[in-house]
Design a protein that fits this description.
Blueprint (H helix, E strand, L loop, with lengths): L1 E6 L6 H6 L10 E8 L3 E2 L5 E2 L3 E11 L9 H17 L5 E4 L3 E4 L2 E13 L2 E11 L16 H5 L5 H24 L4 H9 L7 E6 L2 E10 L5 E5 L4 E4 L4 E3 L4
Parallel strand pairs: 1-2
Antiparallel strand pairs: 2-5, 3-4, 5-9, 6-7, 7-8, 8-9, 10-11, 10-14, 11-12, 12-13
């Protein structure tokens, strides 16, 4: 079961609203809180997320995956991100996931993703998976890091209500697939699809790691969500989310 809860306008984030929802009927369910006009969006590392007014989608997808151990949270993160990617690839080509889970078109950011969770006694009680998706934005405010909208990519204006329903369907399907495989002890299928879709994987690129510039190649992501890179001058590193920056303007 999945349900959609529309907010015409919110002064806070859909993540904050989602946290206060009542428990879902069971672990198969997904509830979506969404708006087309969000004033205070949140992104990774405490960053703000630009939403615009009636041009883009801000949504949080809520799950109560009581079957999931906290040690496997990143697998769920990958699965939900793949659900977003599948939706995007139904719109066109050249979409990828930038580690840990943002949606990129070529080297531009089409959506920011954020997973927040509540864990009790080693089990995941609630997951709130937020997304800010650029849909019909024609011009972005200055200072945003390489934003792009679906409209800028292909020139098509989209019905936001139709798109949130498509997006929710894709994410819920990916969640259901993950839940079934997890219970069967299968963890690597969704990881394989995530890795296949990873931006710049197996390409030599410049990064900044712990403040030091280096040339490296993305090889893998470990089960805890750390990025594994091979350095051009030899050796490997295992980077956490706040330790690595991509160098795009080269």
């Amino acid at each position: 079961m999945r349900s959609l809860r529309y907010c015409s306008q919110t002064e806070t984030s859909t993540q904050d609203i989602a946290k206060n929802l009542a428990p879902l009927p069971d672990e198969t369910c997904m509830e979506t809180v969404y708006t087309f006009c969000q004033r205070q969006g949140r992104g990774q590392r405490g960053n703000a997320w630009f939403c615009g007014e009636n041009t883009n989608i801000a949504a949080t997808f809520v799950f109560d995956p009581v079957f999931l151990s906290a040690e496997h949270l990143f697998f769920l993160d990958m699965a939900l991100s793949v659900g977003v990617l599948r939706y995007a690839r139904s719109q066109g080509e050249d979409f990828f996931l930038k580690w840990p889970n943002d949606l990129y078109w070529k080297n531009k950011k089409a959506a920011g993703l954020l997973l927040e969770n509540t864990v009790v006694s080693g089990k995941v009680k609630r997951v709130c998976f937020g997304i800010g998706l650029n849909v019909n934005q024609a011009v972005f405010p200055p200072g945003l890091p390489r934003p792009v909208s679906l409209f800028q990519i292909d020139g098509k204006r989209r019905d936001l209500q139709v798109e949130i329903e498509k997006l929710a369907e894709s994410i819920h399907a990916a969640y259901g697939e993950f839940r079934r495989e997890y219970k069967d002890g299968i963890l690597q299928n969704i990881k394989a699809e995530y890795l296949e879709s990873l931006l710049f994987k197996d390409q030599w690129r410049n990064f900044v790691y712990l403040g030091n510039r280096m040339e490296a190649c993305i090889r893998n992501v470990d089960d805890n969500g750390h990025l594994e890179l091979e350095k051009r001058n030899g050796g490997n590193i295992l980077a956490g989310i706040k330790e690595l920056q991509y160098c795009f303007d080269e």
